[in-house]
Specification:
Two copies of one chain form a homodimer.
Chain A lengths: L8 H10 L10 E2 L6 H8 L14 H5 L6 H4 L12 H10 L4 E2 L2 H8 L13 E2 L4 H14 L3 E4 L16 E4 L6 E5 L4 E5 L4 H10 L16 H6 L7 H4 L2 H4 E7 L5 E4 L13 H4 L8 E8 L6 E9 L2 H15 L3 E8 H11 L10 E9 L2 H17 L5 E5 L2 H12 L1 H6 L3 E8 L7 H10 L5 E7 L4 E8 L4 H7 L2 H8 L24 H14 L16
Parallel strand pairs in A: 3-5, 4-5
Antiparallel strand pairs in A: 1-14, 2-3, 6-7, 7-10, 8-9, 8-10, 11-13, 11-14, 12-13, 12-16, 15-17, 16-17
Bound molecules: flavin-adenine dinucleotide (FAD) (2 copies).
Chain lengths: ~550, ~550
């Protein structure tokens, strides 16, 4: 671990002040005054490349044990859908020639989820290129009563993206074209299968950014992001997809193409139908195209990575940030010491700051370098001076910013390497956010390898994860319904951003009243009367 | 009119630069260097007080001619709802004692819309205080097949807020309590009948602002704002209500209370049901309470009011603004010379800058006075220096800011004083925004008193208004479907923010495909099978 360097105020404060001119501000510095290149060196090998794009070749997948079939692990019964026949395959082949995949090895990757906790046994994967093809496929499936599982990047964390039984997998992988981009307004129209990271690159070349960003960006599709109403790392600044998405094209269960693909910031011509599909996890329709508003690319981005002595200080640092950084604050993420241990151990990433009980990552994005530097400088001076923060490091160039972000973004990956992961993604009042972690550590004792807390603190969103050597019903019994009851007791949400999928259906009632669950079911019946779209998912299980 | 003063650069530039320290920056200045107090004096009498709260006593209402009954002016047939009986009144009286209004004079104000173009003949106005009372009322109306028109502040501009025939008026006027406010997160929970301006005051005292603002703020209710998905003056910065509203409580047609009133920034537990009701104009349920995220109150607010020589310059000034003001830009509004003539003539407001073909109002909101001043100063210097702007004035103190805003906010009011108003509220690609106005002026010639264009340029939202001495079918024939076809030709929206109400039902097809209209109808049938909520409104008319 990094040796503790007592903060040497004068040394730190002086160059900081001087750094308020653009030229002097591009150097990444630690606050004790020394640039810790060896640490950056260690980080460097992985930064800037999303771990997920390379996942196929990672050691995890090849060495990992076979994943148990979902229908064997969970008490779930197949619904009376038809089974895919040779004739069906021939029909699909006519609709999308050479894009009907039945090779078992190719199917394997699409039958198992990212967390490797679910496995379906689908016999066919379809890869349409256009919404007309999707429409044609769904019309046929609807007539034939064939169940369909839409799949984007397959990075979902609640088992929504893979079949439970033999549902047809409808992949958006080849629907990856940008349709248009308006340079003045920043409105992007693209197909649903575009990979988030590629869209980011595309719009950044045009001086804009995507309004969302997440650790899975190298694999996840924009359609999957919308289907899950993904939150992610820019939520604090740019808000929910319900606000930034301007239009959608959706193919309904019976093949009807619903074109709500407007590129207007305002359109109050009747009900805002697109909203229904944002967050509906593929159960109400297949999103085929998206129109989304991209914010201008900030001229100056700074990331500070800070060590905090306690959770109270994490909260106070957040309030201070909001007050002193105002409109340029673009992210406020936290992680605990155990998270840092995990990324160090499994991914060989090292902490750029001294060991601390908590770490926070503060990002600013603004339009004027020297103004942002001044704001950040005042904030950091205050935070360090008042003891809210004990150590920290600042990055202003892209490479180093990516390295700092990797520490936070790759926690999910480090966790999967630690063993079986029990994942909870909850919203809580911010001042109670960490209590549940402390509480669970005491409750679980040595049953768990690790109990960690991290997440989007600025949004009141805790990622609570428990790892163990293997899946254990008794550990699960100690976790659930305890975690959900605790959350409901705080009027929190039992799924802040990851959605419901297959895994959280039974717990919806902790966050939604019966009237809401009934209305969800009614909407499902209205839009997908035969229930062929992503069955066994998202809708509440019958009590 | 103000005498044209040639810009005296050195005089202007010098104090401007000097003004970049906080102390020096609080003075409102015109760019020719002189403070034009006489103009402010003239404005002063009206600024800061919303025109709408005083409307009851305004000369318009008392002198205005009787408004023609809607069912006489328009070819609309009463649907077979029951008629309110004495027994019904007695039941209502039991549910909400002393809050069942049948006095014709009191009813008058609720039967006629703000524009005075629609009149219903409802015989009863109900004023519940709680959602339980609303639930009780709707359950009864549902059983009895009585039609209900929910009414907020009755400022809607599309005839949605008043009955068409004898629908019961359900007013939210007494549902005006704040339920809670979280000081750290800025989350406000309140009843639907709270007046926007009062909420603004409430949260501003706590160092936050409402994420929306509109000219009707003195009268409109937050429930009405949500029901119409109001856009308004802060949309550019804080985005749509679909993003800022966190939760809703809604009473459905049959009296079911749907409680989605969470106060969490993130909640992906199933479909986001609240979204259905935002913008549904009272046709799917009655919104009874709201949870909404308020942004922190900016430390520094500046408003510049500028004269532009042409529409091309209005657009270029906007691009320059976005680039140079970045994250602190909070509004960009424009109005044409005829708008200025109307506010001068009817409301005795005078232009604070020299006569120009176009005016723009630029607002910045930021967290650090001197940084904002510097950004604004660079921008204005550039805009004036490059001829984008020919004259301008800047306000930094609240009183003067309100006066400048009044020029823009009170255009709607000035128009109603000018005669019969044909109103169009459309979204268009920003570079074609004003072409329609020019085009119509030529097309209508002397038939129209005024053809004016103004609006939220930053959102691509044009308010196009035509005034005439009185309603004329032949003028209407020249306007419609021409305006809608023109808009559809640009793939615009025929109702950007005002909604559909009674007046725009027949034109929905210009902006929405048949599949979308069908789904709207299906949702209506699902949620309000007897169609008792706001009948004759919002849903597409049968082709
Ligand atoms: C390392 C890592 C970090 C993550 N970080 C975040 C985070 O910060 N915030 C967050 O919210 N999530 C996060 N996630 C979860 C996940 O990445 C998101 O849910 C993502 O939006 C899923 O996109 P996808 O394309 O991979 O969808 P998939 O996983 O393929 O599918 C997810 C669900 O959406 C449906 N779906 C996919 N595409 C469509 C479509 N076109 N039409 C209809 N339905 C569709 C699927 O049926 C399924 O139910 C993370 C995941 C990982 C592995
Ligand atoms: C001077 C002026 C300026 C304006 N500026 C703007 C602007 O900038 N942007 C903009 O978008 N609009 C603007 N408007 C239009 C209008 O103010 C908005 O539509 C406003 O949101 C309506 O609120 P209200 O409370 O007056 O609703 P009302 O007019 O009473 O009702 C409007 C519709 O909503 C329904 N409704 C009302 N309350 C509820 C409820 N609690 N539950 C369910 N349904 C309900 C009604 O049935 C009706 O269909 C302006 C109007 C005026 C007069």
């Amino acid at each position: 671990m990094v040796r503790r360097l007592a903060p040497r105020w004068p040394v730190w404060l002086f160059p900081w002040r001087a750094a308020c001119t653009p030229g002097a501000f591009v150097q990444q510095r630690t606050w004790a005054g020394a640039t810790r290149t060896p640490l950056w060196g260690r980080l460097h090998g992985v930064a800037g490349v999303s771990p997920l794009v390379r996942r196929g070749s990672s050691s995890t997948s090849s060495q990992a044990p076979e994943v148990v079939l979902t229908c064997e692990r969970y008490p779930v019964r197949r619904l009376p859908f038809s089974t895919v026949s040779e004739e069906d395959l021939a029909t699909f082949e006519r609709i999308i020639p050479s894009r009907v995949i039945t090779d078992p090895e190719e199917l394997e990757a699409s039958n198992v989820d990212w967390l490797r906790t679910m496995r379906g046994c689908s016999k066919v994967l379809l890869k349409p290129r256009t919404s007309e093809e999707v429409s044609h496929i769904l019309r046929y499936c609807h007539e034939r009563n064939l169940a369909v599982n839409t799949q984007g990047g397959n990075t979902g964390l609640v088992g929504g993206s893979v079949p439970v039984f033999d549902e047809i997998i409808l992949s958006t992988a080849l629907m990856n074209q940008v349709v248009s981009f308006q340079d003045i307004s920043g409105i992007l129209v693209c197909q649903a299968g575009c990979i988030l990271e590629e869209l980011s690159r595309y719009v950044e070349e045009r001086d804009f950014i995507m309004p969302l960003d997440l650790g899975a960006k190298g694999s996840c599709h924009i359609g999957g992001n919308l289907a899950t109403n993904a939150g992610g790392l820019r939520f604090l600044r740019y808000g929910s997809l319900h606000g930034t998405v301007l239009g959608l094209e959706v193919v309904l269960a019976d093949g009807t193409v619903l074109n709500c693909l407007t590129s207007l910031r305002k359109d109050n011509t009747g009900y805002d139908l697109k909203q229904l599909f944002i967050g509906s996890e593929g159960t109400l329709g297949v999103i085929t195209a998206v129109s989304i508003l991209c914010p201008p690319k900030p001229r100056a981005v700074n990331v500070a990575f800070l060590g905090c002595p306690g959770f109270a200080e994490v909260l106070q640092t957040f309030s201070t940030c909001k007050r002193m950084l105002g409109e340029i604050l673009s992210a406020y993420e936290f992680m605990d010491a155990e998270c840092m241990q995990l990324v160090r151990h499994h991914l060989h990433l090292a902490s750029p700051v001294q060991e601390s009980p908590f770490y926070v990552l503060v990002e600013t994005s603004g339009s004027r370098v020297e103004h942002d530097a001044e704001k950040l400088s005042s904030f950091l001076e205050h935070a360090l001076g008042s003891g809210l923060v004990t150590d920290g490091t600042l990055a202003t160039d892209q490479g180093k910013i990516k390295m700092l972000w990797a520490l936070r973004e790759r926690i999910t990956e480090a966790l999967t390497r630690d063993g079986y992961v029990y994942k909870y993604d909850i919203s809580l009042p911010v001042d109670r956010l960490y209590d549940l972690v402390t509480d669970l550590r005491a409750r679980l004792g040595s049953q768990a390898k690790h109990v960690v807390g991290y997440g989007h603190l600025g949004d009141g969103n805790l990622h609570l994860n428990v790892t163990a050597e293997a899946f254990s019903p008794s550990l699960l019994g100690d976790l659930e319904p305890y975690v959900y009851e605790w959350t409901a007791g705080q009027r929190g949400s039992v799924s802040a951003e990851h959605g419901v999928g297959f895994k959280k259906q039974s717990v919806l009632g902790y966050s939604k009243p019966p009237e809401a669950l009934r209305l969800m079911q009614q909407l499902k019946t209205l839009l997908d009367p035969k229930g062929i779209l992503n069955p066994y998912k998202t809708l509440p299980t019958q009590a």
